[in-house]
Write a structure and sequence with these properties.
It is a single chain. This protein has 15 helices and 11 strands. α4 runs antiparallel to α5 and α5 runs antiparallel to α6. The protein starts with a helix and ends with a helix. It is of the alpha+beta class and 418 residues long. Strands 1, 2, 3, 4, 6, 9 and 11 form a 7-stranded antiparallel beta sheet that branches. A 4-stranded antiparallel beta sheet has the order 5-10-7-8, with no helix packed on it.
């Protein structure tokens, strides 16, 4: 075998040298000899595919790259080459599948992300294309010495995002124009929010991973007086706790890891909690959808949630869930998606040595004492005890938003989704 491997290696090197000097016939002859020795070697198959691409024999290229990727499925470059062949053949589905394989191996693969953004733009998947291009353009800002052809591609992507922002702005103006015109003074913060979301202005702000509403106070823990329904919710603590404990005692079939990252995501601060029940959740509401099986098992909790003023945005909110933090587990410092909401904690089971930090304020949970905070301010949690910690978590509107601003934000999200 050593002799054969050496021969294959020598032939691959000779083919590469021939390609470099532009001797296509010599290159092909070396590759064909290597294929005769090792017909399943992914390196040889890839070399043959590259020669076929250069010869514009895209069908042959796809055949070779597919065989190479099947032989070495953990190599992203082979999937990228297969995606290229499929693109030349105008096989959109084949290109998408190939790119997804590359991204499953490396979520930060710049070229895979770029080609996926191009594919979504080309096939009219506008929302995915905009999101994809925004991610690619953000990644590109950290990269030096990009090739001129890539700079041209990125410029086209930037132009596409800008064009779609104009279309979105017009749609929002059509939907909300009358409401905005009727009370110009009362819509100042919303207009700044909309302009920022559309890339028309910058905001100097606290950390917010999604939609940022400008000029709201950056409050770590909100004042209890801003939530007059807290007392009624707290009165139901015992009943809510009993329902949560029954769910846990029943074996937790409805409980799942809170952190579930996509395949191919690089190591990060969430890796230790990925797919782990150290921090788990059981959702009563998730992204605006009621979880009927869980609510049926927890009628007191479901009724309590129905009695409070929820922030209803189809496909986004409300969310409400039992949060379970196992002994000696730690939720790392992080920030949330949007400051248009307040996050509520109702502690249900709290052993000693549990604490919660928002910004510079660290507090213990106390059973039956609800609190609200702005999760766009850095926060983290610890359970340094030997027992399980259980909290009911839900989201409501940020109390500093007026009712008019709440309605405008609902319209904004509806228009953006449409």
């Amino acid at each position: 075998m050593d002799g054969q491997d050496t021969s294959v290696n020598e032939l691959i090197a000779a083919a590469a040298a021939a390609r470099q000097r532009g001797a296509a016939a010599d290159e092909l002859r070396m590759i064909d000899r290597a294929l005769a020795l090792a017909p399943s070697d992914p390196r040889v198959l890839n070399a043959r595919g590259m020669r076929a691409l250069a010869d514009r024999d895209n069908a042959r290229a796809r055949e070779c790259f597919a065989a190479a990727a099947a032989a070495d499925p953990r190599e992203p470059a082979l999937w990228m080459n297969l995606a290229t062949a499929n693109r030349h053949l105008r096989n959109d589905d084949g290109e998408r599948v190939s790119l997804m394989h590359a991204l499953d191996l490396d979520r930060l693969n710049f070229m895979a992300q770029l080609r996926m953004a191009e594919l979504n733009q080309r096939t009219g998947n506008v929302s995915a294309a905009i999101e994809g291009w925004q991610g690619v353009l953000t990644m590109a800002k950290t990269m030096a010495n990009l090739r001129p052809d890539l700079l041209e591609t990125l410029a086209r992507g930037h132009e596409y995002v800008a064009e779609r922002a104009v279309v979105l702005a017009a749609a929002i103006e059509r939907r909300l124009g009358d409401a905005l015109a009727a009370d110009e003074a009362g819509t100042q913060r919303f207009r700044a929010c909309m302009d920022h979301a559309l890339g028309r202005r910058a905001i100097y702000r606290n950390e917010c991973a999604g939609v940022h509403f400008p000029f709201l106070p950056a409050v770590e823990f909100f004042d209890r007086d801003q939530f007059p329904w807290f007392a009624a919710l707290e009165e139901r603590t015992a009943a809510i706790r009993d329902e949560a404990l029954r769910l846990i005692a029943d074996g937790g079939a409805l409980i799942r890891p809170y952190v579930r990252q996509e395949a191919g995501t690089p190591d990060n601060k969430w890796s230790s909690l990925d797919q782990s029940l150290d921090w788990s959740a059981c959702f009563l509401w998730e992204y605006g959808v009621r979880n009927d099986p869980v609510c049926a098992l927890c009628p007191e909790t479901a009724d309590a949630l129905a009695s409070i003023p929820q922030n209803i945005i189809p496909g986004k909110s409300p969310s409400a869930f039992f949060s379970l933090l196992k002994p000696h587990a730690h939720i790392p410092a992080h920030t949330g998606v949007t400051n248009t909401r307040a996050i509520i904690h109702l502690p249900l089971v709290v052993p000693e040595n549990c604490r919660f930090r928002v910004g510079g304020d660290t507090r213990p949970w106390r059973v039956g004492e609800a609190f609200a905070f702005d999760d766009t301010i850095e926060h983290e949690a610890w359970n340094d005890s030997d027992a399980l910690r259980v909290v009911l978590i839900l989201d409501v509107w940020n109390p500093y938003l007026s009712e008019k601003e709440q309605r405008l934000m609902q319209g904004f999200f509806e228009a953006a989704d449409a």
